[in-house]
Amino acid sequence: MSKLPSHCRWGILSTANIGRKNWLAIKNSGNGSVVAVASRKLATSQAFIDECQATEPFPIPPAAIEGYENLLTASDIDAVYVPLPTGLRKEYVIRAAESGKHVMCEKPCASNATDLREMIEACHEHGVQFMDGVMYMHTQRLQQMRTILDAGHRVGKIRRVASQFSFNGGNDFEAGNIRLNSNLEPLGALGDLGWYTIRFSLWAMNYELPTHVCGKMLRGQHRADSPAAVPMEISGELFYADGVSATFYNSFITAHQQWANISGTLGQLHLPDFVLPFSNSPARFYVTNSEFVTTGCEFKMLGNRQEFEVHESSDSAVDSQEANLFRKFAAIVNSGNLESHWPEISLKTQQVMDAVMQSALEDGRTVAIYK
């Protein structure tokens, strides 16, 4: 496929299921298209392409490629989306950078911060953009929340951030999913779900790193095919120099929840669906300024909750966070002006995650974070 002005040519590195969702996001972005999909077997790549083309076709069907290296060296690809297992990402992100390909990396980006630094440095050295695939970072809702928090008169000074992201995977998930194999996904629920909750806390705090953290492994899973145990259920606590704190909970055994709450000196801001907006409704968040009132013998707590709506679609629509993510990335690629903000916040997220994991493996010992 020839290069069009202001158009990003994407290669998808593996046929992981999440790639189907992002195939559609790339299509809806308006400034990119999938031109190739790679797998270890040609038939697998072609089957993935055929299934996606059947419902969400590109005018020119993407090429099926056998072997990841062959995709990375292809001359007609500008950027690669990397949904490979975490344990394999470092090698292929570095190879992509060396081949001059911009990198959209699934999360968690790496097994540890040392590996991620090498990945980011390779991208910097070769002049390509690095960004992680956290979709909610690209919503209008988040921008409106930032405006309200920064204004100061509704929530006040932030004192506490709390979040939970969980789902109950069930018996089949526990028995066979790669997220419980320490070779492929060494961080388990902390990596798969905690990347979102930790990132939300960092975002709320304008990306200030906590001074120290604690983590607690509430339940681990040591499957026969896994050299080490990985978190099935984990909680973490982040502590800041001025006394602000943040807490999060992630689990593969607790029902679907994805809420976040920011508590301040004047009120609180709440999202019931901060990771994936609820289907078929506007994106919402709530600001509550409760008031305790006494009149003689009557004691009342007034809710004073205000609802905010952002008319932004869910479900992979053209204006959804998924499409915004790939639209933003392609705009950076097409402009040639790289943005250092994105790899910087990825590294901060990984640093906090590493420290929480270290603490959890040491029965909740406090771990300092060095900037």
Overview of the structural elements:
The protein is α/β, with parallel strands linked by helices and 371 residues long. The protein has 11 helices and 17 strands. It has helices spanning 18-29, 42-55, 68-72, 86-98, 113-125, 140-151, 170-176, 188-192, 194-204, 321-335, 341-361; strands at residues 8-13, 32-39, 63-66, 79-82, 102-105, 130-132, 158-168, 212-221, 230-239, 245-251, 253-264, 268-271, 283-288, 291-295, 298-302, 305-310, 367-368. The strands form 3 sheets. A 9-stranded mixed sheet has the order 16-13-12-11-7-10-9-8-17. The chain has a 6-stranded parallel sheet with strand order 3-2-1-4-5-6, with helices on both faces. Strand 14 (291-295) and strand 15 (298-302) form a beta hairpin. Helix 1 crosses helix 10 (321-335) and helix 4 (86-98) packs parallel to helix 5. The longest helix has 21 residues, at 341-361. The radius of gyration is 21 Å and the shape is globular. The termini are far apart.
Number of helices: 11
Main beta-sheet strand count, sense and barrel state = 9 strands, mixed
- Order of strands in the sheet with most strands: 16-13-12-11-7-10-9-8-17
Q: Calculate the terminal CA-CA distance, rounded to whole Å.
A: 44 Å
Overall form: globular
Order of helices and strands: EHEHEHEHEHEHEHHHEEEEEEEEEHHE
Q: What is the average per-residue confidence, as pLDDT, rounded to a whole number? A: 96
User: Structural class of the secondary structure composition?
Assistant: alpha/beta
Question: Which ranges are low-confidence, i.e. pLDDT below 50, for 5 or more consecutive residues?
Answer: none
Number of beta-strand segments? 17
Beta-strand percentage range:
25-35%
- What is the C-alpha radius of gyration, as a whole number of Å? 21 Å
Helix percent reads 25-40%
